[in-house]
Specification:
Pfam families: YolD. This protein is an alpha+beta fold. The chain has three helices and five strands, in the order αααβββββ. It has a five-stranded antiparallel beta sheet, covered by helices on one side. β1 and β2 form a beta hairpin. The longest helix is centred in the middle third of the chain and has 17 residues.
């Protein structure tokens, strides 16, 4: 330690730290490509639900509406799973959409399509 301090004082050498280990130049196109590769690495295939699982999801949603329980809905969108939690505000059977009321400081409503739903949990 003492030797390094004397050596840097004598030589007038300033250490650049982490900068010296980074690449000299990365073009924006290369950076974008690396980010897309990282994003694709974590992508998942959409789980295929059979009739029994779809019926079970529908019954849980109806149960939560009837007794006004909070629901945690897991959806699949573009290769990733997203989790939403709140009260089921309304069902639209024609458009096949669930309106979920988010339970935060500022209440807002999220539209979730039936075909995107993978899993439903009812919190009693």
């Amino acid at each position: 330690m003492f030797y390094n301090k004397i050596r840097s004082d004598i030589m007038g050498l300033k250490d650049r730290g982490k900068i010296k280990w980074q690449g000299a130049f990365i073009m924006p196109e290369h950076l974008k490509m690396l980010n897309e590769l990282k994003k694709d690495y974590y992508r998942q295939t959409k789980p295929i639900l059979d009739e029994y699982q779809i019926e079970k999801i529908e019954s849980k949603i109806c149960y939560a509406i009837e007794f006004t329980f909070i629901v945690k809905i897991t959806t699949w969108e573009d290769g990733y799973e997203w989790h939403y939690e709140g009260l089921v505000y309304r069902l639209d059977p024609i458009l096949k959409v669930i309106y979920l009321e988010k339970q935060t400081e500022d209440y807002y409503i999220i539209k979730i399509r039936f075909e995107d739903i993978v899993k439903v949990e009812v919190k009693e």
